[in-house]
Amino acid sequence: PKIYVITPTYARLVQKAELTRLSHTFLHVPQLHWIVVEDSPHPTSLVTDFLAASGLTYTHLHKLTPKDRKLQEGDPSWLKPRGAEQRNEGLRWLREMGAAAEGKEAAALEEAVVYFADDDNTYSLQLFEEMRYTYRVSVWPVGLVGGMKFERPVVEDGKVVRFHTGWRPNRPFPIDMAGFAVSLRTVMTNPEARFDGDAQMGFLESSFLQNLVTMDDLEPKADLCTKVLVWHTRTEKPKMKREDALQKQGLGSDPDVEI
Ligand code: UGA
Ligand code: MN
Predict the structure, then answer these.
(1) Beta carbon of 82 within 6 Å of any ligand 1 atom
(2) Would you say 153 is a known binding-site residue?
(3) Which domains does the chain carry?
(4) ipTM, interface predicted TM-score of the complex
(5) CA distance 69 to 197
(6) Tally of CA atoms within 13 A in the half-sphere of 161 that contains its CB
């Protein structure tokens, strides 16, 4: 089965480095279709050129987060959810593509899976083989998240019975975005399911999952959720002290060089 990976991304100094790292992981994954959704009013040349040269099968979309929903300079990062509108745009494309498919292609899509991969996390290749066969929603541990070494679904007798998390364990689904995949069939048969851009901190994943499954339906992967195969890494914001100082003297780095 095919894996459709939806990645929200936005312009910043480390964007091309993040996309480079991510694309090099995906190049090792068979049958992967990358849906890149820019948080921008139009496709940027950086991402357009990057994807064209990537060697991957991809779809390039864009959807600007409305200003009242976007973090402003100086806001704490937890204030508003990130990537919600972009993931919804990816889902819209998938549903449209799924509805238009016919015959063999439609049959193949019945088995496909959808994963939401942020551009800054670290993904093992094994993770994609774990998620590849997903009936409704599959789940697994995520490392370095939520102020913990890892968070994970706790499995008893092959079923998820609760979640190991340090914070608000009573959320409907206390799972990071990186910790689940959903079948395309489930996305298609629940056309209303989407991410709530107004969700309060920590509830973005639940806003999508609670309309799709119950805890009982979850399919535990990664050796019954005992293996960490994805890490919620975050890239440090580069300091531009010297650049700013040089720029004041007219000696800044050539703006025509893409970084
Ligand atoms: C955590 C989760 O891992 C995210 O999946 C979740 O969206 C986020 O919290 C949240 O609560 O909204 P975190 O590392 O804090 O992740 O979020 P980022 O990695 O900064 O952003 C998630 C994705 O959205 C990234 O792919 C990023 O490129 C994208 N993003 C971020 C945008 O498209 N626009 C923005 O303004 C910011
Ligand atoms: Mn992140």
Answers:
(1) yes
(2) no
(3) 3-248 (3.90.550.10)
(4) 0.98
(5) 7
(6) 6
